[in-house]
Amino acid sequence: MSTPLLQLTETEIETQSAEEFAGRMLEILNDAALALMTSVGHRVGLFDALAAMPPSSSEAIAQGAGLHERYVREWLAAMVTGGIVDYDPAEQTYVLPAYRAASLTHAAGAENFARTAQFIPLLGAVEEPIVRCFRHGGGVAYDSYPRFHALMAEESASVHDAALIERILPLVPGLVDRLTAGIDALDLGCGRGHAVNLMARAFPKSHFTGLDAEEDAIEAGRAEAQNWGLHNVRHEVCDAAEIDRPTSYDLVTAFDAIHDLVAPAAVLKNVVEALRSGGTFLMVDFAASSHLENNLDHFLATFLYTISCMHCTSVSLAGGGTALGTMWGEEKARQMLREAGFADVAVERLEDDPVNHYYIAVKRG
User: How do 356-362 and 344-348 pair as beta strands?
Assistant: First the structure.
């Protein structure tokens, strides 16, 4: 029976709190290690292999996945002790229950948390330069994150394939009809260009341009467009802060891009200039508040603040930027959109998407 809190001395309370916190730290260490192993399992295809197999030995699982058994066996041990894979010691077999596979395999689509776990090793790879930035200032440039564009493309593709055409674009009143009839659209920070290619394929009468500062990402977008036989989209290497295309577009989009930029305020002003009268800016960014105290119950707050510290804030500072950070939030976003020149700003959400805010800003006059 536990001792009632009121009967404990101050020293006993401190001792109990210290023990509880030590236990919490042990959980953190185990969960951090499990996140790393989850990333590995995703990258080598072990979750998909397990989901398709009955209870099997480590040898059979390794053979089915085309991997080396000794590594697979050690990985399975981490998965078993981490509560992800079940183990039968009598038969020495392993199985991934279907209800867990639903959050870990490619079939899970946007709900594949194993894919998201890849951010942990990606960020860990830049720990040393981030530590130097803590001590000396500055930032870590984009090219220090060699897998970042590939990972973001994998993450965003799962969302855009499922929802961009059918659910996200219809959030803007009348936009689907306008795209069907034919308009000019620009996607800023397009990365590997999958989203802009999806739009170009869905709306062949419209013309699309995707811009990104990273040449490798743009080449990937061009390759996909060519593979799909698209003739109404082009991909260009360009810094969004340097675009000078007055009244050229009816629609500008930015998917999870503005908060990373060196000069986001200048880019937003460029967006206003680039839009024709009545044109729309659709900006998608993380659903959060600009105030820490309002994010205490945010289900991804620690994860997103960590990404902000080790990537989004740092890449902006590397270019001498303002470092909005991942969690710049709705209040700051609304303020900056107004200051850029948008009088009308609405914020929409999808019922089953707790991660994103969909900002809709219209240029008037």
Answer: antiparallel
Predicted TM-score (pTM) of the model is: 0.91
Phi, psi of 224 (to 5 degrees): -65, -45
Partners of 65 in the beta sheet?
none
Domains (range + CATH), the chain: 5-116 (1.10.10.10), 124-362 (3.40.50.150)
Q: How far is CA 102 from CA 106, 250, 302, in A?
A: 9, 40, 24
Between strands 93-95 and 86-88, the pairing is antiparallel
Pairing of strands 356-362, 275-286: antiparallel
Residues whose CB falls within 8 Å of the CB of residue 99, separated by 6 or more in sequence, listed in order: none
Q: Is 20 exposed, middle or buried (0-12, 13-18, 19+ CB in 10 A)?
A: exposed
Token digits for 327?
A: 């969690």
Mean pLDDT by groups of 10 residues along the chain of 365 residues: 58 81 95 97 98 98 98 98 98 98 91 94 95 97 85 87 95 98 97 96 98 93 98 95 93 96 96 97 97 97 97 96 96 98 94 94 90
